[in-house]
């Protein structure tokens, strides 16, 4: 790659709301020299309890809006949207699309010896069995558990709160009763759960390694970027730029963003992508 070919990548991260900011952070940490567009479908969240048809319709409309902004790559940061709508999005747009499920499963494969895993996720992700299928292709036995109370607790800012820890502990106990006996990987299969890593570490047995699909996805983005953009994005002193788009209250997004990011978000655009 010659210097004149170097170009900053425009990377879009889609999520149902705020949680995908954990994915944005993971990517931007590895690739500071890129321009980021974040789309939070806050008017239509939560996705975790919706049907496949509704989720696909919502994600496709957002993906088309992002494509029209001129992007090089689209990351579906939302686990539920990745599980249920990745194929619909790939059909609908002409840019490479990366979801979080495959990278998450690959990361589990690298960490696990027993090939027995637990997945914590939303109801919709669990019912889709997308993680189970991705892991089965890698020779895994998987136990999936819906943990619907954790998203609202994180959004309340209770990431280091005894109530959240107690809820996570109960989910863990219920899971260990039914999961394969020597499972050694726990996939944090929802955008909000990486914020609960310390807490999961305390409630999970020592033998269980935590798998963060957000980090794994960031590595997938690095390998997918063309060389001229990758070189630019990897420059250690480079500074990212951000554009934040939401479908509901920009004020609420700005207020809650610091829960997920280590900086303030002062400018947020309100976009309308239909119903
Ligand atoms: N972003 C969703 C996920 O990762 C969680 C929030 C929601 O249910 O919309 O599954």
Description:
By secondary structure, this protein is α/β, with parallel strands linked by helices. 44% of the residues lie in helices and 18% in strands. It has twelve helices and ten strands. It has helices at residues 21-30, 52-68, 79-92, 101-111, 123-128, 130-136, 150-155, 162-178, 197-203, 213-224, 227-234, 250-256, and strands at 9-15, 34-40, 73-76, 97-98, 116-121, 141-146, 185-189, 209-211, 241-246, 268-270. The strands form two sheets. It has a six-stranded parallel sheet with strand order 4-3-1-2-9-10, sandwiched between helices. Strands 6-5-7-8 form a four-stranded parallel sheet, with helices on both faces. Strand 3, helix 3 and strand 4 (97-98) form a beta-alpha-beta unit. It is globular, with a radius of gyration of 18 Å. The structure holds D-glutamic acid (DGL). Residues 15-17, 19, 45-48, 78-80, 122, 125, 151, 190-191 line the site of D-glutamic acid.
Tell me how many strands there are: 10
Query: What is the helix/strand order?
Result: EHEHEHEHEHHEHHEHEHHEHE
Instruction: Enumerate the distinct ligands.
Output: D-glutamic acid
* Strand order within the widest beta sheet: 4-3-1-2-9-10
- Helix content, binned percent: 40-55%
Mean pLDDT, as a whole number? 96
Question: Could you provide a short overview of the structure?
Answer:
With about 280 residues, the protein is of the alpha/beta class.
